Amino acid sequence: MVRRRRAARRSPAGDRAWWLAVAALAVAAVAIVGLWVTRPTKLARWSEQLEVEVGRELAHAGVRSGRLVQETRTLARARGVPYHVVEKTYAVPPRFSTPAFIRDLARQLPRHGFELQRTERAQTARGSATIIEMGVSRYRLYRLTLQDGAALDAGPPAAGLAPAPPGPLPIAARAKVAVVLDDWGYSQRLVPEVLKLNRPVTLAILPHQRYSTATDRAVRGSRCEVILHMPMEPWDDASPREPHVLTSGLSEEAVHRMLEAALATVPSARGVSNHQGSKATEDAALMRVVMQHLRARRLYFLDSLTAANSACLEAAREAGIPFAQRAVFLDNEETPEAIQRQVEALVAIARRAGWAVGIGHDKRVTLQVLQRAMPQYEREGIEFVALSAVEPMRL
């Protein structure tokens, strides 16, 4: 006789466990698909595409490129893949409707695969503003600050920041542009090229390098100004580090000692800027010690703006030292066309605010673009000056 097997009956508890397992697998599958869709390898391209889309929406709303007050591109990494987080500040026209603009963004961005991640009202050094953050999935790619026109019309709010009034403005009679070139000290091969510019350019020299002091000496008596490009701690632990980096948690004595040693290798320095430093410049306690040291040495500070929440402005204000911030990076993309566009953006900011600081690097292509562009913009009324000659930096 063949016995028939009796079908096993699942208990209610077993059914629940089975469905929970299925649900867990489904959630895992969705997460895996999400990670695949948001592949970090695409973030660099998406960052560029999002910048184009936001620019198109701004233009449609009447906010033209001439209203750009400040631009920052911060290098970030996702699973080792580099991409840029773009931050731009615009002065909006008096009748601009921020709520309507946000509604339009919320409708348009998803059509291109992006999302509006966060909006908030905030008080900045220039007054009231709306901050809009956008990106893909959990990655923030663009931070847009829309500065209220009425607030900007009130005049310069703080040391180191130039006013940017709303509305169409005439070109400044002699708008000042300071070009700072970073990362000198590794070699001297381009010193003759920078001297050929025969214009005030500020060289930011790294300390403790083979050619730090030699570069300082080579440009003495020229129209170049020299500052110390002080290595400071970045958030990205994978970033290459220079020797003798200022880091969070250092004692005051250690900070003073490191600054003195660095300045000794760049003896002509009239000021200091940060090399990297996305983490260090957000450390208010560390920056207060740095600014107090610079005050004692009668030096100024240039914030390269590698951090979204830099504490440098407030620390410099407390110390009472001359201070300025970078408006534009000139050569993140090392092609003549891209550098020319960044020079144009720098000049546009200077025409609007009266002055602007652009940072490039010790690169032949950058010097070649400047060699062509500087005479042209001088004919149009732009004055190229050393960093200490821009409005907030008068010592």
Structure description:
- The protein is an alpha/beta fold.
- It folds into 2 domains: 41-152, Beta Polymerase, domain 2, CATH 3.30.460; 176-393, TIM Barrel.
- The chain has 11 helices and 14 strands.
- The chain has helices at 12-37, 43-60, 98-108, 149-152, 191-196, 212-218, 252-265, 284-297, 312-319, 336-353, 364-379, and strands at 68-78, 81-91, 115-124, 127-136, 139-147, 176-184, 202-205, 225-232, 271-276, 300-303, 323-325, 328-329, 355-361, 383-385.
- The strands form 2 sheets. Strands 6, 7, 8, 9, 10, 11, 12, 13 and 14 form a 9-stranded parallel beta sheet that branches. A 5-stranded mixed beta sheet has the order 1-2-5-4-3.
- β3 and β4 (127-136) form a beta hairpin.
- The longest helix has 26 residues, at 12-37.
- It is globular, with a radius of gyration of 25 Å.
Summarize the structure.
The chain has 11 helices and 14 strands. The protein is α/β, with parallel strands linked by helices and 395 residues long.
In terms of structural class, how would the helical and strand content be classed? alpha/beta
Question: CATH superfamily of the largest domain, called what?
Answer: Glycoside hydrolase/deacetylase
Overall pLDDT level: 83
Number of helices: 11
Q: What is the correct CATH architecture of the largest domain?
A: Alpha-Beta Barrel
Query: What fraction of residues sit in β-strands?
Result: 15-25%
- Give the SSE string: HHEEHEEEHEHEHEHEHEHEEHEHE
Reading off the top of the CATH hierarchy, the class of the largest domain is best stated as Alpha Beta
Q: Cα distance, first to last residue?
A: 108 Å
Number of domains: 2
The portion of residues assigned to helices is 25-40%
Strand runs, count = 14
Radius of gyration: 25 Å
Main sheet? 9 strands, parallel
What is the molecular shape? Answer: globular
Low-confidence stretches: 30-38, 150-173
- CATH overall fold name of the largest domain: TIM Barrel
